[in-house]
Amino acid sequence: MSIQARRCTFDRILVDMNTQCDLLLPRGALPVTNRTEILPNIRKLMNWARIENIPVVSSLECHRLGEGSRGLPPYCIDRSPGQRKIPFTLMPRRVVVQGDNTLDLPHDPFRRVQQVILTKRTRDFLANPKADRLFQSMSVQHLVIFGVVAEHCVKTAVLGLLARQYRIAVVTDACGFWSADDSELAMRQMDAKGAVLVTADELISGAADERIRNSRPMMASVDEEETAEAVHVGTNGNGNGAGNGQHVTAFRNNGSRRDLPSNGVAGKLSAGARSRDTAADRLRPEPQPRRKVASHPQTKPPTGLA
């Protein structure tokens, strides 16, 4: 059975980023500055997920004792109280998947549980191979992302998932930040790349559904003239590359291979290349003739002055 046939289909999945005690409680090691504003909205989203039975993927920030934290105080240390998730962000049926640089995942985990918690040790949630594989194993209409920290982990996860062509809704009033200015810049960046910025009330009421359905991640356009192809023409053994058994294979710049039909393809490709060369020649400026610099005879100093 193919991977596509085994993919589970969901309308939406909530992605809960780092909703942990050290980042959201007043006595935490490194609480976000807007925690009092976002905690009611996070609670509202998690209650909505319980009632509607929406699958939840959660990330759990993990750091070792003595590990460097980029000038920040130690936070979310392994097995510390501050590493624990806020109690109302936990679903009754859940599983914790450790990030150990392997691809082992339970098959169809949401058939048995509602929440999959994935540990991570870097800012990039998708750097955990299991997280990347989990999303690849599912077919989902859109992902709803919220949590902390907006200008770091949330932005990195959103941009990574947009690059994988997922529709993304970012719940702005459920995202915590350390810097309001950096958070605003991160929101603008995510919006420019195709994420839909919504509030918790808009999401739960369905007011944002149409905007999310109509959203499209930004894709880099590829110009045909900038995509160079190296063409290999197979021969039939007589050395002239013509006749029966001829085939044409094109190799793109990204390494992918494309077999082309043999009838006249090589001629068409070479003609196309000649036409592009001719057009380039027409646009190339005419060479300017070099000017001859007139040589001035050297004048000798008058005698008697030396």
Could you tell me the CATH topology label of the largest domain: Rossmann fold
Q: Which percent range describes the beta-strand content?
A: 15-25%
Q: Count the beta strands.
A: 10
Give the N-terminus to C-terminus distance in angstroms. Answer: 101 Å
The best one-word shape is: globular
**Which residues sit in consecutive blocks of at least 5 with pLDDT less than 50?**
1-5, 220-280, 298-306
Average predicted local confidence, pLDDT: 78
> How many helical stretches?
9
Number of domains: 2
Q: Say which CATH homologous superfamily of the largest domain is assigned.
A: Isochorismatase-like
If you had to describe this structure to a student in words, what would you say it looks like?
- This protein has 306 residues and is of the alpha/beta class.
- The chain has 2 domains: 3-213, Rossmann fold (3-Layer(aba) Sandwich); 226-278, no CATH class.
- Helices cover 30% and strands 20% of the residues.
- It has 9 helices and 10 strands.
- It has helices at 3-6, 21-24, 35-52, 129-136, 150-163, 180-192, 200-205, 209-213, 265-283; strands at residues 8-17, 56-61, 94-97, 115-120, 138-148, 168-176, 196-198, 230-233, 248-251, 257-260.
- The strands form 2 sheets. Strands 3-4-2-1-5-6-7 form a 7-stranded parallel β-sheet. A 3-stranded antiparallel β-sheet has the order 8-9-10, with helices on one face.
- A hairpin with a 5-residue loop joins strand 9 (248-251) and strand 10 (257-260).
- The protein is globular and about 45 Å long.
- The termini are far apart.
